[in-house]
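Is this the right way to post structure tokens for a design question? Let me know if I should format differently. Anyway, here goes:
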């Protein structure tokens, strides 16, 4: 792992999430945390993609974003959706969506189907990753509450 590449990827995830935090009108006190969460998810996605593939990388990045968002929501007393919506922006498969539509317009239906299915799988992996992280966080919270009683 090259440190220069790591810094570039970290900055890319941070800046893209920062920009979308402003576009989504996230509360001002959450913007820095949103950006850090997005950067962490993007770096995880980027390096896991090299090892296993884009679907597993999307799933893993989404789990990291979901867990960090749940933790941040508890610490800052804000809804987790603020951190999740902005954090997943770097993971959204825009490239795949663009090339699917481009292939449809150029009548390359076989290629459009292939890219489209991959894009849907990637989006599904992100959704399932967020879902699992949310379920995991809520079950941990429930166990902590029961222990206090």
């Amino acid at each position: 792992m090259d440190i220069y590449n790591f810094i570039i990827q970290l900055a890319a995830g941070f800046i893209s999430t920062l920009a979308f935090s402003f576009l989504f009108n996230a509360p001002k006190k959450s913007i820095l945390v949103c950006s850090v969460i997005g950067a962490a998810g993007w770096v995880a996605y980027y390096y896991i993609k090299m090892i296993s593939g884009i679907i597993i990388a999307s799933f893993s990045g989404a789990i990291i974003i979901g867990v960090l968002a749940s933790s941040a929501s508890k610490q800052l007393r804000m809804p987790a959706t603020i951190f999740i919506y902005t954090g997943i922006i770097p993971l959204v498969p825009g490239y795949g969506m663009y090339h699917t539509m481009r292939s449809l317009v150029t009548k390359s239906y076989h290629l459009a189907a292939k890219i489209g299915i991959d894009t849907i799988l990637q989006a599904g992996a992100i959704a399932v990753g967020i879902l699992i992280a949310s379920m995991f966080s809520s079950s941990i919270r429930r166990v902590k509450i029961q222990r206090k009683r």
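Format looks fine. Someone answered above. Worth noting: Residues 52 and 112 are 23 Å apart (CA to CA). Helices lie at 3-23, 31-51, 54-76, 80-87, 94-105, 109-148.
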